[in-house]
Amino acid sequence: MPRRTVEAVRALADQSAAGTFGGAGSFDTVDAARAGFAGLAGVGPDRVATGGSVTVHVGLVAASLKPGTEVLAPEGEFSSVVSPFALRGDLRMRYVPLDELAAAVRPETGLVAFSAVQSADGRVADLDAVRAAAAAHGARTLLDASQSAGWFPLDAGAYDYTVTGGFKYLLCPRGASFLTVTEEAQATLPPLFAGWVSAEDRWNSTYGPVERLASTARAFDEPPAFLAYHGAERSLALLAEIGVDALYAHATGLAARFRGGLASLGHEPVPGTSAIVAVPGLGPRTPDLAKDGIMVSDRAGNLRVSFHLYNTEADVDRALDALGG
Question: Any idea what DSSP says for residue 221?
Fold first, then answer.
């Protein structure tokens, strides 16, 4: 997390420890984080709901589907994107290879649920093709941007729903997540988590049933984890200051340097231009790299290395030296 984020979390924790009113957390800060994410996602704040996890956002979408609806997803998709649909038991799940996703959309498909960038290996979906295929067959789209928002340009308004965990490339504390909903799709979501936080008039809705939910996507807000959102507001502001184009150029440039170095060492990474580089079969090297202070991931047997604004070319070369040793 950025220093400014840590400072914001610490300040709220100190106020909470002292028992001051400010220690309860600020909805104004939550709304500032909402606006910050909206700016990065290319939508208005009225289209953004806040929450604590991608799984809960996806579960809300899953609850809106009619029994028998076909949900199409890539093979090996991240669990949080598919489990709320699969475990309902009365939806028809269909899985295809990622590069066949657009071609697999058919008239029976009700929803296409997929990640912009795959968690296991960093592959980037053919977003334009999937959107076009879904539109041609009248299917809705749910995009998980957890592995992409923060370095990859996001046009959330082009999808019926997007879900994004804030603790990855958005540099937020864990406990902040974002759901975007088009105005049309918003009308079909059930108010499963309705409470005073999601009311149009929060402070006059604290007792008895909520009379009127917010007219915006805020109707689907979960009660916020204020420590996370006080930090998220600062992290999202930092990313806005830097700009997605600069973040994309920096992260993918480092990834390209790493891919070139891997090739010189005789390794074959998953091809592409993603900021996430995956090397099949090298996942077991993760503990050894950690001993050298190089933090990477073992995902589905892949050594997965991801780059962001806090990395430099020196980090790339250090990782390559460790792998070549």
Answer: P
Neighbouring CB atoms inside 10 A of 64's CB total 17
Do 113 and 82 touch, CB atoms closer than 8 A? yes
Q: How many residues does the chain have?
A: 325
**Cβ distance 155 to 137 under 8 Å?**
no
CA distance linking residue 141 with residue 144, whole number of Å:
10
Angle at 92 between CA 89 and CA 95, to 5 degrees: 115
Q: Which amino acid is at 324?
A: G
Q: Which long-range contacts (CB under 8 A, 24 or more apart) does 313-321 make?
A: 313/254, 313/257, 315/254, 316/254, 316/257, 316/258, 316/261, 317/261, 318/292, 318/294, 319/258, 319/289, 319/294, 320/258, 320/261, 320/262, 320/265
Work out the number of other CB atoms within 10 angstroms of the CB of residue 4: 13
Judging by DSSP bridges, how do beta strands 297-299 and 177-181 pair with one another? Answer: unpaired
Contact (Cβ atoms closer than 8 angstroms) between residue 96 and residue 75: yes
Q: Distance (Å, rounded) from C-alpha 1 to C-alpha 12?
A: 16
pLDDT tens, position by position, 220-246? 999 999 999 999 999 999 999 999 999
- Pairing type for strands 161-165 and 297-299 reads unpaired
3-state secondary structure of 190: coil
pTM of the model: 0.96
